[in-house]
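Forwarding these from the shared drive since the link keeps breaking.
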Amino acid sequence: MPRVSIIIPTLNEAAALERTLRGLSVLDPPAWEILVVDGGSHDETVTIATSTAGTVITSEQAGRSIQMNRGAEVATGEILCFLHADTLVPDDAIAVMTKTLANPAIACGGFISLMTGTETTRWGVSLHNYLKTYYAPLLFRPYRFFFKGLRLLFGDQVMFCRRGDFWACGGFDPALPIMEEADLCLKLLPYGRIRQVNRVVQSSDRRVAKWGTLKATAIYLYVGFLWGMGASATTLKRFYEDIR
């Protein structure tokens, strides 16, 4: 079975990280390695990661793209999995990833993200996030890309790909503070299809809880539309504040 390296970028994620790492501890089969790449947390993130995770890496710069690339540099597994610190995966996630990428026609995969909180499940937002994996490439890229297998995956979908393909396409663009996963999908398409597997991961609803469902959905749509029209990363980031 190919070895899977799980890479978790963190910045002040003490409230969520311990639960995520607990979930990873019961994976069957287990991950080859778990790499927490911290961008300069001021809370207990590093302490939690050090006591629970396999390896903790300090990134000289903060930024998901930069931190995930740093983790990929250190990783030794044949498959790279990029996991947000507030996302829970099923206990057979490693088997799902290796089975998906056993098909040489698939270059990258991701899960269906179900956005949940302590007392609610955001069914409407989750449905929209599921659908935009398909409609976004249809709207903003030539149809031939869609029929070649282009799907746009996002961070809370737990993207995974072969390490060789990741570096062959250049990895994450370090200049992108947002939409870096969708950009990676575009760059991986020449190496195979992008697939959303029919399995669920649970992501925190903290952003929706703060903004409200309508505002959050409007921002997701607006940022996606601007990205599809070629807006700069600086412009996009203005609408997408960090929330912990």
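-- next protein --
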Amino acid sequence: MYKRQKTSWLGENWPVLVGAVVFLIAIGFGGWGAWRLFAPVSGDPRAEIGSLKREQARLRDDTEQLRQRVATLSRSDQISRDANRDLQGAIADRDEEIAGLRADVAFYERLVGATATRHGLTVHALKVQQQNGPAWHFIGTLTQNLNRGAISDGTLTLTLEGTREGKLQKLAWNDLRQQATAPGIVYSFKYFQQVEGDIFLPAGLTPVKVTVRLQPRSGAAIEQSFTWAEAQRGQTVAE
């Protein structure tokens, strides 16, 4: 009788074992390949790109900080410039004020000081300044210290000489005021007074000389002439 030969478990399952071993080896090689593909190793372009991106972000932050610092410094510099300009303007205004006060002190000393020269009614200064169109505003400073305490009163008028179209032209008070019978400007003072008014110059006239005429209530008239340039500067007779 034929007997069935017994076989071992390994002999019966060796194909399965071989397949499992091959499968494990394949998984191992696949994992190693994936690690080699995605791991950031030295010289890997992806690692370098990541590093460059981080450096670029850092540079952007540094640039923004520098930009903010420049803006702050620029603003501070502008504030300093504005403050310096305001200070220079204040100094200039103060210097002008001091100069004006010194001029006033000198004026009063010449007028009422112990060593002041005595003089009668006179036109100490004349100042003209252009207004709108043909109008000019004038300020005449009148003084006297001969008769202290006495009142000087009367009227002030102006006459003007100039050229137009190459010809000499003289304008009377009525012409300058554009009135047929313009009254003079009244003055009345003890030591000094500033008398103001407006005159009107015809178109095309170039002023050359202006004369102030004082007509006291009693006594002879007094005249004082100024060049137009002197009148624009407000120059006094003592200058």
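DSSP finds four helices and eight strands in the chain. The mean pLDDT is 80.

- D.
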